Amino acid sequence: MTTSVVPGFYHFFFTWFDPIVSFAGAITDFVSPDFVVNSLVPATLRNEAGVNPNYRFIFQQAGGGMVAVAFLSGALLRATNELKIWKYVQTAILLIDFAMLYSAWDALKLQGRLSPAAWRGEDWGTVGLTTFVTVLRIAFLAEAGFTKARVGKAE
């Protein structure tokens, strides 16, 4: 048995939702780095009123990466139905998801806020959304919800 096609839910999610969220994240990186930092580091815990302009390049690079993710999801995945390509793209983005979850964990640990009871709405949004898409990517890679089709000679 082999998998024949990407199920509709995954197709919709990875070619519509994912690129929109990634592009929105890129725009936020470019135009509002303070909002990005505040998503895991409250202003009350920072030494500066805003993000130091000397560090903007970090957000611009992150934004560029998110634009690439949006393009791959919104364009490449629409250009092919080949499951192998879809899996390569989702594996690459899963690596980004893991890095984002690790960085969130590290930020919250440094602040002594690992307990979900200490999280703010921004923390829940950042960690929650990233966890959701990470689980969805893992489910896709495990082919959860896929219809199996027989391949081979007809009897």
UniProtKB/TrEMBL annotation:
Domain DUF7704 residues, every copy: 4-143
Q: Which residues form the signal peptide?
A: none
Query: Which keywords, in A-to-Z order, does the entry hold?
Result: Membrane, Transmembrane, Transmembrane helix
**Cited Pfam families:** DUF7704 (PF24803)
- Which residue windows are transmembrane per the record? 57-76, 88-105, 125-146
Query: Could you tell me what this protein is called?
Result: DUF7704 domain-containing protein
Q: Give the species this sequence originates from.
A: Massariosphaeria phaeospora
